[in-house]
Amino acid sequence: MKDLYEKLANDYDEFGPIDQYLGDEQTFFKNLFAENKVKDVLDCACGTGQHILMLSRLGYHLSGSDYSESMLEAARKNLTARNLTFPLYQCDFRYLERVFDRQFDAVICLTNSLPHLHKDEDLITALKSMRNRLKDNGLLVLTSGTTHYTLTLPSIEVVVNRPDFSRIFVKKHSKKYQTINIVDLFHTDQRNDSHQYQIVYRILLDEDYRKLLSLSGFSEIRIFGDYQMNPYNRESRRLIVVARK
User: Fold this and answer.
1) Cα four-point dihedral sign 169, 107, 37, 53
2) What is the mean pLDDT of residues 45-49?
């Protein structure tokens, strides 16, 4: 696979500081992991480290991996700036066993990471790899911002609009794929450049996850529409999957 974030990694956190991942999302993980006695967690698409930072505040033993070495470098800088050190590895989450020879209480793959894979065979390979890195009865957690509802929203979305920076999404989708063109605009005396990036996601909705997870050997598949654990429906703004090995 191509590293789609090689250039974007440097500015990725213009979405907002990684410290912002608190509130409902943190409470969701705190309650879910306490209920299931989770201690060791692998974030297999850790990006710039936002969820590793969030979970570190809850006291878990954490490891991280990402396909993009550029994103990992950003994660190391982010964590070091907060006096945190966790093992981070470059790894394709279809082949986690190539890097990790142990198992975890939970594996997380968050924020539209899995849909970077487009073929069923690759998705199942990745999910089986995640399952194999779980201890018996371990949990897999997947999250996505693509839902039946969000696919009906306008194609142009202003994601960030600050005096110094703007980020705009220009979206289009077919039955199977969603293409997001990211337009970054810096507008200060010190920096006035602009950049455009394109990411193509496989559209995965609730029934797709149920099918793929079942084929990958998972059981007890639960799908929520928010961090309050309300059931997913066509009006949900988020899609959260919790499956058990």
Assistant:
1) negative
2) 96
**DSSP code per residue over 7-68:** TGGGGGGGG--GGG--HHHHHHHHHHHHHTT--EEEETT-TTSHHHHHHHTTT-EEEEEES-
Burial class of 79 by CB neighbour count within 10 A (0 to 12, 13 to 18, 19+): buried
- Write the CA distances from 78 to 38, 49, 60, 86, integer angstroms: 25, 7, 18, 11
Assign 91 to helix, strand or coil: coil
Terminus-to-terminus CA distance in the chain, angstroms?
Answer: 27
Each residue's pLDDT tens digit, 150-205: 999 999 999 999 999 999 999 999 999 999 999 999 999 999 999 999 999 999 99
Torsions phi, psi for 230 (to 5 deg): -75, 145
List the structure tokens of 177: 């794929």
How far apart are alpha carbons 222 and 187 in whole angstroms?
Answer: 44
- Whether the CA torsion 217, 221, 226, 231 is positive or negative: it is positive
Q: Which two tokens stand for residue 230?
A: 């309300």
CA dihedral 104, 200, 143, 85 (to 10 degrees): 50
Q: What is the pLDDT of residues 80-107, one digit of tens each?
A: 999 999 999 999 999 999 999 999 999 9
Residue 147 has pLDDT above 80, yes or no: yes
